[in-house]
Design goal:
With 68 residues, this protein is mainly α. It has helices at residues 10-38, 40-65.
């Protein structure tokens, strides 16, 4: 049996790696959420404009042609 005076750091390394992993996951989640928040108004406005185009063009066509 070999006796060593070096400390056993396996447990501390595991905790450090786990903490680093969790911090990376939390950071990624936060960046994703902030990206969604910043593009929310842009997406809503594009969706509204697209809905208007899809409704108004056929409506104008029907009015121009004189009914159904």
């Amino acid at each position: 049996m070999k006796i060593s005076n070096r400390p056993n750091l396996r447990g501390m390394e595991k905790v450090a790696n786990d903490t680093t992993y969790r911090a990376a996951i939390m950071g990624r989640d936060f960046r994703l959420f902030m990206g969604l928040v910043t593009t929310r108004i842009y997406g809503i406005s594009l969706g509204f404009i697209l809905a208007l185009v899809l409704i108004l063009i056929p409506a104008i066509w029907v009015i121009y042609r004189g009914g159904f």
